Amino acid sequence: MKKHITTFLCLLALTLSVYSQEIPIENLETQLHTNTQQYSKSILDNEIKGIHVAHVAITSEHALLDYSKEGYKTIYLFVKGKGNVMAANNTYEIVPETILLPNSAKEITIKTAKNDTLHYLKISSKLTTQDLLDLKEFPAEHTQNVYYAKFTDCKSYTEPIKSPNTVSRTILPNKYIPRIAMGTVQTKGPDKVGFHEHPMLEQLFLGLSENDCVVYADDAKVGFPEYSVLHIPLGSSHSVSVEKDKIMYYVWMDFFLDKKGEEWLNTHNVEDDN
User: Fold this and answer.
1) How many angstroms separate the CA atoms of 262 and 271, rounded?
2) Domain of 209?
3) Is there a domain that residue 6 lies in?
4) How many CA atoms within 13 Å lie on the side-chain side of 216?
5) pLDDT tens for residues 195-211?
6) DSSP state letter for 201
7) How far, in Å, CA of 64 to CA of 120, rounded?
8) Which run of H or of E encompasses 58?
């Protein structure tokens, strides 16, 4: 009898673990403590294999010199504050919602505007053997030149799972970094992104300014505020909804398991004009 009870409890625990899946989320610390000049914190550690995300904040007191790490590709998403980045003998203006890839630049200098604090995500992707081979096939200007864009300047697209009121933009097309693409979704409620699944890719969301919506994944749901990062459970059926007069505005980050999975991006219908 005791053996049967133990077996039942094990099965019950397994069942509950399946149906109690959560959506991992972390809020970014956007207010630095007094006298703090620089802040760095890993976000959602070990959620996606080969991907490391850090939230970095720096004040205007000191410039930050950052180096590329051998065997990795790095993406900077600037979300709050103003400043500039010096890379490959050029200076790039940084405003909220700007993306930059150093590519072949071995080091960059990040400087915050006077009396301001600059907040950004630094996303490092470890390159596999296949990634290194694929990089050789990418256009040279994609892998050598610094890639820099303000989100609002990026090309828009439409998608069947989104309403006509939604503005979506591709801020990082594929073929710059193997198996990675990124974009933004922006709309005002009431609205939603319909339920869909993509078992061929891992996905992170980054809430931008004024974002205030709800994310669903299978039986789980979580409030998704501005300046937060969440991980969509792999293979889950997920959606996003926003209530009347509230804002949905976030970055999606796709990390494909292999390059064939990038065919998912064919569901994005690129528009001729922004």
Assistant:
1) 19
2) 32-270
3) no
4) 13
5) 999 999 999 999 999 99
6) E
7) 13
8) strand 51-59
Q: What is the DSSP letter of 154?
A: S
Question: What CATH number is given to the structural domain containing 197?
Answer: 2.60.120.10
Helix (H) or strand (E) holding 13: helix 2-19
| Angle CA 227–230–235, to nearest 5 | 155
Q: Is residue 189 domain-resident? A: yes
For tokens 């850090």, the residue is 54
Question: Has residue 119 been placed in a domain?
Answer: yes
Sequence length of the chain is 274
Paired tokens of 232: 């969509």
Could you give the number of structural domains in the chain? 1
pLDDT in tens, 76-133: 999 999 999 999 999 999 999 999 999 999 999 999 999 999 999 999 999 999 999 9
In a domain, 195, yes or no: yes
Tell me the Cα Rg of the chain: 20
d(CA 116, CA 82): 7
pTM: predicted TM-score of the whole model, two decimal places: 0.90
CA dist 248 to 25, 96, 115, 187, 205, Å? 16, 17, 29, 5, 12
Rounded Cα distance between 186 and 179, Å, is: 24
Give Cα separations from 24 to 11, 29, 79, 179, 197 (angstroms): 24, 17, 20, 22, 17
Q: Which two tokens stand for residue 131?
A: 């990634």
